[in-house]
Each structure stands twice: as C-alpha cells, then as structure tokens.
Design brief:
seven-stranded antiparallel β-sheet; 71 strands; globular
C-alpha cells in the first residue's frame, strides 16, 4: 500500500512538474507577446514624436519631463542631415520591473527647410535663386564661381523676366510690358509687337521667328575690356541709363555711347520719365529695383516719389507687431529672411531658430529649372532621379530617358540583398533613392555605414527624401529584451483627396458628371471614358440624415458616406443617377462595391488662425501692398518669381465695376480680402486672369461670389494647383461660382461656413476642373459638373496648414535593421 502511495506520489510529482513547466512556458510566451506588443506601441509613439518635431521644425528638449522618463534633446548632425533622439522609461513609469527605450532617427530632417546658399564651386543656371550676404539673387546667365554682385551673372530678386501668356509684347520702345524673356537657357527680345494669346508655352509663341530674336543675356553693369554683342542690353552705372549694343565690340577704358543706342532700348525695366507706369510695374533705377504702387504714374522719380516703393523692401518689411508663418519672407536691416518657424516679435537677425537668411530650395520638380545627373526631385508623390545632365523642361512622368521614379519596376534600379554594389551606385528602396558610399553586398540602405539618402544636387544643395526610423525596446526582469523597428516615409497630408467633399451634406437636384483625369498625361477631353476617368470621390460626413443626395448625377468613381445607426447600417446616400467604375456592369446603376461607409474629409486649419482666422487676425497678418480699385486692368505678381507677392484690400472687393474690369495675375501672389470678393458685371464685365506664369492663393474673410454677369476666373495655366480660394468665415452667407463663360480651374476650400446652402451653384453650365471642399455643398437646379485632377492627391497649398504625415511605413525585419543612435 505504501509502495502504491509512493508510486502515486511520484506520478503526481512528474505530472505537476510537467504542468508547472507548461505553465511557465505559457507565462513566458505571454510575457513575450506582451513585450512584443509594448515594443510596437513604443515605436509608434516614437513616430508621433518625430512627426511633431519635423512638422513644427522644433528640435528642443521637452520643457518638463514626465516623472520617470529621461528624454534627451534632439541631436542634429548637419553634415549627414540626420536628427537623432533617445527616450528612456524606467520601472517607476512602466511598473512591474519593466523598462523601455525609444530611439529615433530622421534622415534629411531639414528637407522641408533647405537653404539655397551661394557656393563658389556650383554650376549655376538661369533662374537659380541663392542667398549671399543677406541679399537674394537670381541667376541670369549660366556660369560657375561668379560672385553675386557681379551683375553680368546675377540680378537681385525680383526681376520680372518670364514670358507670360495672354500678354501684349512690343518692339524696342520700352513703353509697355517686359520684352526681354528667356526659355531657360536663351534670352530673347521682341521684334514684332503682338499678343501672346492663349499659347501655353513660350516655345509655342516663339515658333514664329518674326516675333522674337535670340540675344545674349543683359549685363547690369558696363565694364571695360568686355565683349558686347549686337542687341545686348547694358546698364551704365555712370549715368544710370540702359543702352542697347548696336555694334559688336570690345569696350575700351571708358564708355563709348557711339557703340550703343539709348532711348529705344528693348528692356522695359529701365525707368523713363516719359512713360506712364501702372500698378505693380517693376523698374530698375539708380541701381535699385522699384515697384509702382499707384494706378498711374508719369515723371515721378522712384526713390523720391510716393508713387514707388523699394521692390525688395517695401511690402516685405519686417514688423514686430505682425505674426509670421513658415515660408513668409521679410526684409530687416539690409538683409532678406525666410520664416522657418512660426513666430511674432522675433527679430530676424538675432533669431536663427525662426528665420533663415537664405531662400528656400524646393525638392518639387520645376519645369523652369535645369537639373544635373543624379539630382533628385519629388513629383506627384514619387521621388525621381535625374539620369542626364542638362535636364531641362522634361516631365518626370513622361520623359523616361531623363528621369526614373523610385516606384520603377525595372530591377536594375532596385536594391537587392544579393547584389554586389560599388561606391557611387544609386538604387531605390522603400520609395526613396540611396547612394552607395562603401562597396557591399547584402547591406540594407538603412545602414548608414554603406548607404546615404543625401548628396549634393547640381545646385549645390545637399538634399534627399525624409525617412523616419523609430525603435521601441522593452525589457522585463528575467526575460530577454524585445525590439521593434519601424521605417516610415513622410509627405504632406492631402487636402483634396476627394473631388467633392463636405463635412456635413452634399445635395444636387439635377444631373451632371463627377469624374477624373490626370493633367500630366493629357487634357480632360482626351481621357473621358478611359481608366483615368473613374477615380473621383464624392464624400460627406453628415450623420443625422442623408449625407449625400444626388438626383441624376453620374459619379465615375466612388461615393463615401457614414453608415446609418440602425440595421442594415447602409450608407447615408441617395441617388437616382449612377456610381460606376471603368469595369462596372451596365446594371445596376449603383455599383455597391464603389460605395463606402468610411468618408475621409480632411479639414486642416487655414492660415492664419483657423475658423474666422483672417478677420480675427487681420491686424497681425503680413499683408503686403494694398490693391487699387481703379484701372481697367490691374496686373499683380512678378513673372518667374519664386516667392509670392502679397496684396490686400480691407473691405469688400468687387471686380467688374466701371473703374475696375480685370485683375491680371502674372506671377505667384497671395491675396487677402478682409470682406467679400465679388466677380460680377456692375458697370463692366469682371474677370480674374491667371497667366501662364501666375498662381494665386486667395484668402477671403467674407464670402466668395462669382455670378453669371461676370466672366469668373480664366486660368491660362490649365493647372488647378495654381489657384486656391480659401474662406475661413463662419458666417451664414452663401458662396458661389455660378459662371458659364469660363470653367473654374482650381480648388475651393470653405470649411467653416454655417450657410444653409454652403457652397452654392444654380448655373447648369458651370464646370469645375479641380476640387471643392466645404462645410456644405448645394447644387440647385444645376448640373454637378466637377472633374477631379488626380494630381491633387499629392498637392500642397499655401494658406492651409497641411501637416507632414506618414505616407508609407512598415516593420523592418532583422536583415534590414537600421543604424540607430
């Protein structure tokens, strides 16, 4: 009996030991699962902190650390363009003997704030913009190692040189408009007076050689022992006059007027006492650029008369009473500055954390710039690598011999773990281009010993794509630590992912078509009923009733509305029309696979101040130059300028009066209207023209109205990214673009209006090529015709706080782990 009992006890012991072992293993597995999940949470929290610092351009230490958390300040490696930080959590914070660590790394941490600083070793090309000794200069002749201040190669910005569509050009009289322009490499002068018409490019206008003649670049200071060519423009600083070379020669020790014409000079930049100048015209006088700020000026000398302001300081003068946002430009003392962190009352010269003395370098592809081999740009959400030198005007999407995108399917451009790479190889990985710095096989581009995502552009700027790495590590007493690494690429959050979007409701009681096209690949007409024609999204967020009500509108794409609160939880959407994809069956009219219950309607703050922002912040907004109310045609902006010019009007501004018919935008501009903006026909037919060199960011503190009596907005660029209309009012007034003469090619953003109809239209002929986002949208007795340009999925706009966000992320396997601090 005792033996049996002993045997039973032994069996029980063995069984219990096995049970305890199983429980122990289960506990370990549970701990490991807990650790793994917690390490991922720490890594994700790290991504949030990295985005905060990148968005705000704020790399400071936490003002007061939470208890039991050690958060070291960001370390900025300016040579390798890398920001790093480590945050540790001890057991007192996480409890139960658990400690944690977050390690962060941001490659190209300053990619959205790159400075264009002049460099003596860089090859500069026409239109390059640099900063030097506090002054911004634009290149007017291809060269290297020519110091800004040498006016044969550089001119102080702004210089109004770019060709513009729908502009009247004249011969060598210098009486109207600029007549010397360039196509990126060659200067021309007008030899036959003409209007450029609706031609979209200079090459189309200059195809007729009787209109334009090529010439050498102008030189802004006559010098001795210099060779001058026929028709070359020369500024003689001795008598402050412009001359045209009429006989090719090499200059002697003193200026010989017999070799030049004076008085019939091609360039209209030269101030002339007999000429009638209009608002915004820019002239060069006494070695200074001036801008006319009255409707009409004759014989009033720049620098003396109040008709003129210094074009480099007037509208951009810094003020301690104004509030500035990122990208704003000011002049302070003898230098020009760019805001790199929002601020007020921060003196530019002594606050380098808030202001840069150099212009911004854009990573976005620019058709007016010339690129070198291995330059990198961003276009339509894709990073491209230049394959050739002298890469000018070649669209990255279509010019495949000049560019290759990081989304390429060509294996030879993609990083592969089994391929041997040599120093100087360029490969794409995870949506980003990398340069091999040390020969290797199997080393991930995330490893900084062998690869870099930064290198000098042809313009001398060290740039690259922003990549964020976040590592979370959790250690539990008695268990090995577990680490999770995340890799994320960063891009601006889209403001217009939808064709038509309302935070409340959308109603259209007539027909029309909502569809899409891609303006990069062709015109809208060429894409009707093709695959690119079916990507439009109509989205609304109303939850207390029907969010989207469409009568007979055809939607080529998708509809997104919240689900009802009762079974069967159908989307709050009603339509007697159709919702189709390119492969949808003929019946039924509503393809349910294209109806979503998850609308995404971005609503980011307007600048300044969000709802009611412009009116509430009017006194502290850096507004620029007041807009005139008289003059048949008022031109604003500077063709070819990189920095927008600012204009404002304090009150309701009406275009279409007897005294003001056309507002012509010939360069990038920002308009602030502290009231209503009305395009009508009250005494004359009103219209806003945006020429080929123009773009407009229009802020309206009141309502935006374009009625059928006027002619609306004619956008000669045919690019909806060149026009954004923003109203941040919370008033109940109605906004509308009821215009049939010209379609609205642009985007409309009215997020806070409390109008019963919101953005309203009652003209069935109105077409929008772009997108509409508003609090409420109503089409009454009018066709809802909105044609969405898919380029808007990646577009950024001034005047709205579009934050940088994660565009793509994944957890890195051990074989691709990144180098962390």
């Amino acid at each position: 009996m005792t033996l049996v009992a002993l045997c039973f006890t032994a069996v029980m012991g063995i069984t219990l030991a096995g049970y305890i072992a199983v429980c122990s293993r289960a506990m370990n597995l549970s701990n490991r699962s807990f650790q793994n999940n917690l390490s991922k949470q720490l890594a994700e929290a790290g991504l949030d902190e990295a985005l905060r610092a990148y968005n705000k351009n704020d790399w400071s230490h936490w003002a007061s650390n939470p208890t039991n958390v050690t958060a070291g300040a960001w370390t900025l490696d300016t040579t390798n363009k890398r920001a790093t930080r480590t945050i540790t959590f001890d057991t007192g914070k996480l409890g139960q003997g658990i400690t944690g660590t977050i390690k962060l790394r941001i490659d190209n941490y300053d990619a959205n704030q790159l400075d264009s600083v002049w460099n003596s070793t860089t090859n500069y090309r026409i239109n390059d913009l640099v900063g030097y000794n506090g002054i911004w200069y634009r290149c007017i002749q291809n060269h290297s190692n020519q110091t800004p201040g040498n006016l044969a190669y550089w001119a102080q910005a702004p210089i109004p040189w770019a060709w513009s569509s729908n502009t009247a050009y004249v011969t060598n009289t210098g009486t109207t408009n600029n007549s010397v322009i360039f196509d990126g490499s060659t200067w021309y002068y007008c030899n036959t007076s003409h209007t450029s018409g609706n031609t979209s490019t200079f090459s189309a206008d200059s195809a007729n050689t009787s209109k334009w003649t090529a010439m050498d670049p102008p030189t802004f200071a006559w010098t001795s022992s210099t060779s001058y060519t026929v028709n070359q423009q020369v500024y003689n600083t001795i008598d402050d006059k412009w001359y045209r070379c009429k006989t090719a020669h090499t200059s002697t020790s003193s200026f010989n007027s017999g070799n030049f014409d004076q008085g019939t000079v091609v360039i209209a930049w030269r101030w002339q006492s007999s000429h009638i100048y209009s608002f915004n015209q820019v002239v060069y006088y006494n070695q200074t650029w001036y801008r006319c700020i009255v409707s009409s000026s004759t014989g009033n000398t720049p620098g003396v008369s109040s008709d003129w302001e210094n074009a480099l300081t007037g509208m951009y003068a810094w003020s301690s009473s104004l509030s500035y946002n990122i990208g704003d430009t000011v002049n302070s003392g003898s230098s020009r500055y760019r805001c790199i962190q929002a601020n007020s009352n921060k003196t530019p010269a002594s606050n380098a954390a808030y202001w840069s003395a150099y212009p911004n370098f854009s990573r976005d592809w620019d058709s007016g710039r010339q690129y070198s081999q291995y330059d990198s740009v961003r276009y339509n959400g894709v990073r491209y690598l230049s394959l050739q030198n002298s890469n000018y005007g070649q669209n990255p999407v279509t010019a495949t011999t000049y560019w290759v995108g990081s989304n390429t399917s060509t294996a030879s451009y993609q990083w592969n773990a089994t391929t041997a790479y040599a120093a100087g190889d360029y490969k794409c990985y995870g949506g980003v281009w990398y340069k091999c710095t040390t020969a290797n096989t199997g080393q991930s581009p995330n490893n900084t010993t062998y690869w870099t995502s930064t290198w000098a552009q042809g313009s001398g700027v060290t740039t690259g794509s922003t990549v964020v790495y976040a590592e979370g590590t959790i250690a539990i007493a008695g268990s090995p630590s577990i680490t999770t690494q995340l890799r994320a690429t960063v891009a601006s959050a889209p403001l217009f992912p939808n064709a038509v979007a309302a935070t409340t409701s959308i109603s259209a009681n007539s027909g029309g078509t909502v569809d899409s096209y891609n303006s990069v690949t062709g015109t809208y007409a060429s894409q009707v009923n093709t695959s690119t024609n079916y990507s439009a999204v109509v989205a609304a967020g109303y939850t207390s009733g029907t969010a989207i009500t469409l009568s007979t509108t055809a939607v080529k794409g998708y509809v997104a509305a919240p689900s009802s609160s009762t079974s069967p939880y159908a989307p709050l959407f009603s339509s007697g029309g159709s919702v189709k994809g390119s492969t949808s069956p003929a019946s039924p009219n509503i393809d349910l696979t294209r109806v979503s219950r998850s609308p995404y309607i971005p609503q980011f703050d307007t600048l300044p101040g969000g709802a009611g922002g412009l009116a509430a912040n009017w006194a502290t907004v850096p507004k620029g130059t007041v807009l005139p109310t008289t003059g048949t045609t008022i031109s604003i902006g500077n063709p070819g300028a990189t920095t927008p010019s600012r204009y404002y009007y304090n009150g309701n501004y009406t275009i279409g009066t007897a005294s003001l018919q056309y507002l012509k935008i010939i360069g990038p501009v920002i308009l602030y209207i502290n009231g209503d903006l009305f395009i009508t026909a009250a005494g004359s037919t009103g219209r806003i023209d945006i020429t080929s060199t123009g773009s407009a960011e229009i802020h309206v503190a009141g309502t935006f109205k374009a009625d059928i009596g006027g002619e609306g907005i004619q956008n000669f660029t045919a690019d909806p990214r060149k026009l954004i209309i923003i109203s941040d009012t919370t008033s109940t007034a109605t906004h509308f673009y009821s215009e049939g003469v010209y379609p609205l090619i642009g985007v409309v953003y009215i997020p806070y209006s409390t109008s019963n109809t919101g953005y309203y239209n009652d003209n069935t002929n109105t077409n929008v090529y772009g997108a509409i986002s508003a609090n409420k949208i109503t089409y009454s007795g009018a066709n809802l015709n909105v044609h969405y340009d898919t380029q808007l999925r990646y577009a950024t706009f001034g005047g709205v706080d579009q934050p940088y966000t994660v565009s793509e992320w994944r957890e890195l396997p051990v074989t691709e782990q990144a180098t962390m601090p």
